[in-house]
Write a sequence for this structure.
């Protein structure tokens, strides 16, 4: 809703590809005020992130699961807590990775660009969900503060729609704002089934 009037008139009449860039990364297709498709970022689906592996080759994952070397809990932790930046660079702190790049760490730059590449690819997939009719692409979350990351994603996706950046973690503010709008009868209460 914060995006209302920035590029489109109303959220409930817009078609957006929204990428939340945090410890996990989700990219969703929003059509007329509803999320109609989104990757399961919590379980590691979609792009890799600071803590999550992202999409993996299923055959190799099955082999790893049945190798006898790891428990189910260990595999889950690899996918959702020790993947992504943690696996490649030993940190889940995107700001630290940004600093590593500024200090000339070529591996950190390569890993950051690989993650941005996967985010751009997922945004383009959501454009297909919206049948190519995308009003805007929104980038949110802590990683959206990283200008180089954002520029890489924009270079891959600006041909689809304008890219608008809302850096930071504003989930609680958004929930409170929408709750208040319901209480004021400015928007209807929605029931999802």
């Amino acid at each position: 809703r914060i995006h209302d009037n920035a590029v489109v008139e109303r959220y409930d009449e817009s078609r957006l590809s929204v990428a939340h860039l945090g410890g996990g990364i989700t990219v969703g297709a929003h059509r007329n005020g509803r999320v109609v498709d989104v990757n399961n970022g919590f379980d590691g689906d979609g792009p890799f992130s600071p803590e999550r592996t992202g999409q993996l080759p299923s055959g190799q994952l099955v082999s790893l699961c049945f190798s006898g070397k790891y428990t189910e809990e260990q595999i889950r932790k690899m996918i959702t807590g020790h993947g992504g930046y943690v696996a490649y660079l030993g940190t889940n702190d995107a700001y630290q990775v940004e600093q590593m790049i500024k200090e000339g760490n070529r591996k950190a730059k390569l890993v950051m660009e690989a993650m941005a590449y996967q985010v751009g690819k997922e945004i383009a997939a959501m454009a297909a969900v919206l049948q190519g009719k995308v009003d805007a692409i929104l980038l949110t979350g802590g990683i959206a503060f990283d200008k180089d990351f954002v520029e890489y994603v924009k270079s891959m996706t600006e041909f689809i729609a304008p890219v608008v950046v809302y850096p930071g973690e504003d989930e609680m503010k958004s929930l409170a704002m929408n709750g208040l709008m319901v209480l004021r009868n400015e928007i209807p209460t929605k029931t999802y089934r």
About this structure: The longest helix spans residues 106-129. Residues 128 and 134 are 9 Å apart (CA to CA). The chain is about 40% helix and 15% strand.
